[in-house]
């Protein structure tokens, strides 16, 4: 499997899991997700906001890269000032933005070539530190970051008695022999 194929899988997984979270959460009052649970970002809601903030920051950084024009649409959304910004407080406002960002990541990933993934990306972290890293590995980080924090969210939801079900990326990996039962 090429790195490009792997990133495409991770973008689809990201979209699938975020859609499942939104579906589960839509059946419950928003207030259920604002309670401080002692999680790193305080609550389910704080963690969800962090994921959107991180996506917007990365999309802003990558939209200036030679391959990043597909991410430019994210610039029309509210832009965070810091990693703890709370951009949304209700699922009705959050959900369409989450879906749009997931669609942008998927479209962007699908449009990249293997050569694009090797190109350098120079950016500054929120604290001002400058870095230059290969685009493909930066994208690996972006999708891993989503998975990491979604794991925290699914744990918090489980503690609330809400079951998201199977979360394994393996569900999206195609069978090589469809006749195996």
TrEMBL record:
Pfam families reported for this sequence: DinB
Domain of life: Bacteria
Keywords linked to the UniProt accession: Metal-binding
Residues making up the signal peptide according to the UniProt record: none
Gene3D superfamilies named among the record's database cross-references: dinb family like domain
Family of the protein in this entry: Belongs to the DinB family.
Protein name: DinB family protein
The organism's taxonomic lineage, starting at the top: Bacteria, Pseudomonadati, Pseudomonadota, Alphaproteobacteria, Caulobacterales
């Amino acid at each position: 499997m090429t790195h490009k194929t792997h990133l495409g899988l991770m973008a689809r997984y990201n979209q699938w899991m975020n859609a499942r979270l939104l579906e589960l959460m839509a059946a419950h009052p928003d207030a259920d997700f604002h309670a401080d649970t002692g999680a790193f970002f305080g609550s389910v809601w704080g963690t969800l906001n962090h994921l959107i903030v991180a996506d917007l920051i990365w999309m802003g950084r990558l939209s200036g890269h030679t391959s990043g024009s597909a991410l430019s649409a994210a610039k029309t959304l509210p832009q965070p000032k810091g990693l703890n910004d709370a951009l949304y407080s209700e699922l009705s406002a959050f959900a369409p933005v989450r879906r749009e960002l997931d669609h942008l990541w998927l479209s962007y990933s699908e449009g990249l070539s293997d050569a694009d993934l090797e190109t350098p990306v120079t950016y500054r972290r929120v604290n001002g530190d400058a870095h230059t890293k290969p685009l493909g590995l930066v994208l690996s980080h972006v999708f891993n970051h989503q998975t990491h924090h979604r794991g925290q969210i699914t744990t918090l939801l489980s503690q609330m008695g809400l079951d998201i079900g199977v979360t394994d990326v393996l569900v999206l990996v195609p069978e090589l022999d469809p006749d195996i039962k």
